[in-house]
Design goal:
two-stranded parallel ribbon; Fumarase C, Chain B, domain 1; Ribonucleotide Reductase Protein R1, domain 1; lyase activity; 21 helices; mainly alpha; Fumarase C, Chain A, domain 2; 3 domains; two-stranded antiparallel ribbon; Adenylosuccinate lyase; Fumarate_lyase_fam; elongated
Length: about 475
């Protein structure tokens, strides 16, 4: 039995197979049918603009001989993409099998619908005679660039951004919850100045919020200006029309995009490189989070809540593996590799047009899909962990040497103030604390041996590894600024 003979067809990639449930929301915006549906939206909206004009031209038809479309005719046209389902997908595929051109197949699909318009609108409708208006003065890339921009914009705003925001919201909640929970810090993997768990989570909130702000402010550019961006065919056919104004109206007000006035045959894709660069950067911050949490779990700082019935290891029943974080880590790396390739490739085009961008852009959904898959796993992982306060307290109590920093810094301040016996503070503290296992009594004895004033000595003696967290708790508030 050949797997290729099985129907329905077996998915080749895990995004459409094993992980379909997690990535399915992107199908609505980034699949091939979604792109074709958007192409239809662009085509029919262009028809409506050409037939009905806009306020800038007194709402008069732009094309002589075409009467303004009635409300019913406009609704009929707009229903074409909205009703594009399984039957329509098959019919479009049949056209493409003949044309070997996906946009031309869209044009013919709309022609089919115009042929049937009289059945719905009556014999008086002009739609049955307006096939020539479909794709008027357009090159395929006029339709494609607008459709892809709208697909990507919707995918980001409706799927990726809410998923990313859900992680930030959870981290924000946890940062507030654990703002005062002391935590032994590790710099270079060695015990270091304590912090709080809340502050460490707030660092990621702050980093991620900066990137999400860039995503929300991202421009999505579009153009509709002909075969080489000159409006050549437009002006040859209708030289008295202000086609530049028509183009700006269509891209800005009808498509909801930012108008790009200067292009070759293609929209230059710079906005895509900017967006994918930002998402890739966000992925890498999330990767850092996944790795950090994985190591906190390994260290025992975080405990995982086992899923009832789940197997951690096929041979070691006691294990609860941090698989969500490992899955997120791997899929973020795959997403970044695709996004980085898209960013690098799409900004280049040979002279006025080559086709490398066409096949490259078909992978946008995969690039976002691996990121969404990672976001889903990371969110699930973060929801399944909680601090192990026993381990956290033990780590702090076993590392009194971290108080060497505040003591030697207080000695430095004393020396600068002219107090006697405060010379060589760093060296004195190093002699006591480096390479030694010390405790509370050792620290207090050292403080008593110095010539601190009583207030400073009392303040230093009051410190413990658990209380030496500086302004960490207050810094958590900055994650929302």
């Amino acid at each position: 039995m050949k797997l290729t003979d099985i129907t329905p067809a077996i998915a080749l990639t895990p995004l459409d197979g094993r992980y379909h449930k997690q990535t399915a929301p992107l199908v609505e915006y980034m699949s091939e049918p979604a792109l074709n549906r958007e192409r239809m939206r662009v085509e029919v909206e262009w028809m409506i603009l050409l037939a009905n004009g806009f306020s800038g031209n007194g709402n008069q038809p732009i094309i002589p001989g075409v009467k303004p479309l009635t409300q019913a005719e406009q609704e009929y046209l707009r229903a074409i993409p909205e009703q594009f389902g399984a039957e329509g997908i098959a019919r479009h595929a049949a056209h493409e099998a003949i044309t070997h051109h996906d946009v031309k197949a869209v044009e013919y699909y709309i022609d089919d619908e115009l042929d049937k318009a009289a059945d719905t609108l009556g014999e008086d409708t002009q739609l049955t005679h307006l096939k020539t208006l479909v794709h008027f003065a357009c090159t395929s890339e006029d339709i494609n660039n607008l459709s892809i921009a709208r697909c990507v914009k919707n995918a980001i705003e409706q799927v990726w951004l809410p998923d990313a925001q859900a992680i930030v919201d959870l981290l924000t909640e946890k940062a507030e919850q654990y703002r005062d929970m002391s935590l032994l810090a590790l710099t270079h993997g060695q015990p270091a100045t304590p912090t709080t768990l809340g502050k460490e989570l707030a660092v990621f909130v702050h980093r991620l919020n900066r990137q999400l702000k860039h995503v929300r402010e991202q421009e999505y550019l579009g153009k509709i200006n002909g075969a080489t961006g000159t409006f050549g065919a437009h002006l040859a056919a209708l030289p008295d029309v202000d086609w530049i104004a028509v183009s700006q109206e269509f891209v800005t007000n009808r498509m909801g995009l930012t108008w790009n006035p200067l292009t070759t045959q293609i929209e230059s894709h710079d906005w895509q490189a900017e967006l994918y660069g930002t998402i890739s950067h966000t992925n890498r911050i999330l990767h850092n989070l996944a790795v950090d949490v994985w190591m906190y779990i390994s260290r025992g700082v975080f405990a995982q809540e086992p899923v009832k019935g789940a197997t951690g290891s096929s041979t070691m029943p006691h294990k609860v593996n941090p698989i969500r974080f490992e899955n997120a880590e791997a899929n973020l790396e795959i997403s970044c590799s695709l996004l980085d390739t898209l960013s690098a490739t799409l900004v280049e085009s040979r002279w006025q047009r080559d086709l490398t961008d066409s096949t490259t852009q078909r992978n946008i959904g995969s690039a976002l899909g691996y990121s969404v898959l990672a976001l889903t796993n990371l969110l699930g992982g973060l929801k399944s962990i909680h601090p192990n306060e026993i381990v956290i307290s033990r780590e702090l109590d076993e590392n009194w040497e971290v108080l060497g920093e505040p003591i030697q810094t207080a000695m430095r301040a004393g020396e600068l103030a002219g107090e006697p016996g405060m010379d060589h503070p760093y060296e004195k503290v190093k002699e006591l604390m480096r390479g030694h296992s010390i405790g509370k009594a050792d620290v207090e004895r050292f403080i008593d041996e110095q010539s601190f004033d009583s207030a400073t000595a009392a303040r230093l003696k009051a410190l413990t590894p658990a209380t030496y967290t500086g302004a960490a708790s207050k810094l958590v508030d900055f994650d929302r600024q």
